[in-house]
Amino acid sequence: MNFRQTLRSLFVAVFSVCTMHQLAHAEDRLPLVDISQETDRQVVIAEGTEEVYQGHPTTLLLPDDKTMFAVWCINHGGSAGPMALSKDAGKTWKRVDERLPDNYSTHQNCPSIYRMVDPDGKARLWVFSAALGTRSGPGMPSIMSEDEGKTWKEMPPLGFPCVMTFSSMVKLKDGSYLGLYHKGPEGKDRSPLGVFQTISTDGGFSWSDPKVVAAVDEKNPCEPCVFRSPDGNQLCCLLRENTHKGNSLMMFSDDEGKSWSTPVDTPWGLTGDRHKEVYTSDGRLVICFRDQAIGSSSRGDFVAWVGTYDDIVNQRDGSYRIKLLHQYGRKGDCGYPGVEILPDDTVVATTYVKYRDDDRKNSVVSVRFRLDEVQPDP
Predict the structure, then answer these.
(1) In what residue span(s) does the Sialidase domain sit (predicted)?
(2) Both 151 and 185 in a single domain?
(3) What is the mean predicted confidence (pLDDT) over 239-263?
(4) Of 66, 111, 206, 373, which is most buried with the most CB atoms under 10 A?
């Protein structure tokens, strides 16, 4: 056995002991259904190699409920560039990088893809990133498509310094779009972090001056996830809390984002990073994220929380959680997801993850599941 093999064997042994220790001391407050080893549910969109790290994807499902896009960056928070297309709702994928502007590969950190409709009814696809050229370059460059992703062109940066571009976006009742993102002082990734809001009334071309909507003493709110209540009259925003000393945070708006409640703790089961939600046809919420709940047996892995909007508002734990993918190697280097819901209630959750216990770096992988087939034991 050579030195590299010896070192690898030692790492595996230590990892196994640490995992058993974590499980032995876990304090899960919700039932956990583990489907992370059910490989028939999994689709590898972009495989990592010993040299290439595939990171931080987001996805977009078009109105035909079949066409799906995925975008991501190379290396942790690195350069954009890759794009994949599925014509069968995420079962198979092909790379379409050749459609993209050459300069898109200089856009930095966690690209996010959205479909926005302007006041005249024209739909466009947008991919926003954090910065142009370098992480300290002009804030929020983008590429845009006017033909549902067949061709793309580069757009000028918005000029908003940020750690990441829009983590989430919601269409308001007046047809405008509310985008949320976070940053620290001078746009840097350092404490204190705050969450900012800006609004576009023209389908994504121009945005209002950003304003702070979440800042919490001794906490670092970031990576906002905004969505509507089932009746459409309230906005909920889940927030990663970057000190990771307690639960995540949440806040609410009853006036279309004009004002927000003071952030408070989420239930334990929603504690995590980079939340992304969908509603199933029976009104339940499925929210996927990187688990950061203290005492959780799946902390650092990719999970889904299952519950109701009423559970969130009333700070109840919810129904159960699902372990979607196991993160091998350094815990927590996974879980930024794109999450889509199909007409048959299939959830397609896509993330970056160290998919196998070998020398390959992170891959972009999706998991498919339905709640009626993934239930905790009675």
Answers:
(1) 107-289
(2) no
(3) 98
(4) 111
pLDDT digits (tens, 9 = 90+) for 323-341: 999 999 899 999 999 999 9
Among candidates 302, 286, 309, 308, which has minimal Cα distance to 371?
A: 286
Question: Within 13 Å and on the Cβ side, how many CA atoms surround 15?
Answer: 14
Q: Which domain holds residue 82?
A: 51-118+126-131+145-155
Q: Any idea what the CATH number is for the domain that residue 241 is in?
A: 2.115.10.20
Q: What is the pLDDT of residue 257?
A: 98
| Rounded Cα–Cα distance for residues 116 and 309 (Å) | 25
Q: Are residues 289 and 260 in the same domain?
A: no
Do 231 and 288 lie in one domain? The reply is no
* Domain total in the chain: 3
What residues contact residue 116 under an 8 Å CB cut-off, 6+ apart?
123, 124, 126, 169, 177, 200, 203, 204
The tokens for 123 are: 């739909």
Report the distance separating Cα 208 and Cα 368, nearest Å: 37
